[in-house]
Structure formats: structure tokens, C-alpha cells
Amino acid sequence: ACASAVGAALNHRTGRKVTIHLPGGDLRIEWAGDNHVYMTGPAEEVFSGTIAL
């Protein structure tokens, strides 16, 4: 989500603050002036599974 937001901003398709809609909830992404990227939003389980070790 963060890389998509920065890529969209670099290509002048969005601003530096965007909301991305995902199955687990909306994420707010901000690409700050100091080039740090901040992702804010809910944490929600969207998949559960097991793995054999």
C-alpha cells in the first residue's frame, strides 16, 4: 500500500496524502516532506491458516 501511494504521487496521480481501501479497512498513507512514509489504520485479521514445519 505504501509503495503504491508513493508511486502514484511520483506520477502526479495523487497528492502525498491518500486513503487506500482494503478488505480489512481503510489505510491512510502519508508521504511526508522528509521522505518518510506513514501508514495509519486498523489492524484486522483477514486470513488464518496453518503451516507444516
Please give a structural write-up.
The chain has 53 residues and is α+β, with helices and mostly antiparallel strands. Helices cover 17% and strands 32% of the residues. The chain has one helix and three strands; from the N terminus they run αβββ. A hairpin with a 5-residue loop joins β2 and β3. It is elongated. The mean pLDDT is 94.
Features:
elongated; single chain; 53 residues; alpha+beta
List the helices and strands and how they pair.
Elements: H1 2-10, E1 17-22, E2 25-31, E3 37-40
Q: Approximately how much helix is present in the residues?
A: 10-25%
| Helix-strand makeup class | alpha+beta
Distance between the termini: 30 Å
How many independent structural domains? 1
Mean pLDDT across all residues, rounded? 94
Q: In what range is the share of β-strand residues?
A: 25-35%
Compact description:
The chain has one helix at residues 2-10; strands at 17-22, 25-31, 37-40. With 53 residues, the chain is an alpha+beta fold.
